[in-house]
Write a structure and sequence with these properties.
Number of domains: 1
Structural class: alpha/beta
CATH architecture: 3-Layer(aba) Sandwich
Largest sheet: 4 strands, parallel
Number of strands: 4
Distance between the termini: 10 Å
Shape: globular
CATH superfamily: Response regulator
CATH topology: Rossmann fold
Strand order of the largest sheet: 2-1-3-4
Strand content: 15-25%
Helix content: 25-40%
Order of helices and strands: EHEHEEH
Length: about 140
């Protein structure tokens, strides 16, 4: 891949209020840390919530990532048609099937943080951080 090529990565869930928001925030941080401007990132949900889950925003703030003001947004298969990687979070994002894009589909099979204890949400956060770092290592 030449330095002018762009790799597009989408982090998708149903509500776009927890796992996919955390993954997107970690991906933005990794892109900045690695000066990986060739990576184009997107997050969205098939049925977005009104806001990011409070517990998710809290555990992200604990490690210096403020996502409290982010708004969940809708994403459709058409939005994803040009993406190289579409990563779902283990949720039943049935409307987001890989038929609409030519890239690679991955599911990270993560528990939903909604309604979980702070300790459980932190574990999910840490799993997401590890997966994002591994993805960036793979793409480097």
């Amino acid at each position: 891949m030449s330095s002018t090529d762009t790799t597009k990565i989408a982090f998708v869930c149903v509500q776009n209020a927890g796992r996919s928001q955390m993954a997107f925030a970690f991906a933005e941080r990794e892109r900045d840390r690695r000066n990986a401007d060739h990576l184009d990132l997107l997050t969205g949900g098939t049925n977005p919530a009104a806001h990011v889950h409070e517990a998710v925003a809290q555990v992200m703030a604990e490690i210096g990532l403020d996502i409290a003001d982010r708004e969940p947004r809708e994403v459709t298969p058409d939005n994803l048609s040009t993406f190289d990687y579409v990563i779902t979070m283990g949720c039943s994002a049935d409307d987001v099937c890989p038929f609409g894009w030519g890239g690679e589909s991955r599911d990270w099979a993560l528990d939903d943080p909604h309604g979980k204890s702070p300790e459980e949400v932190r574990e999910i956060r840490d799993d997401i951080e590890r997966l994002v770092v591994e993805l960036f290592d793979e793409l480097a």
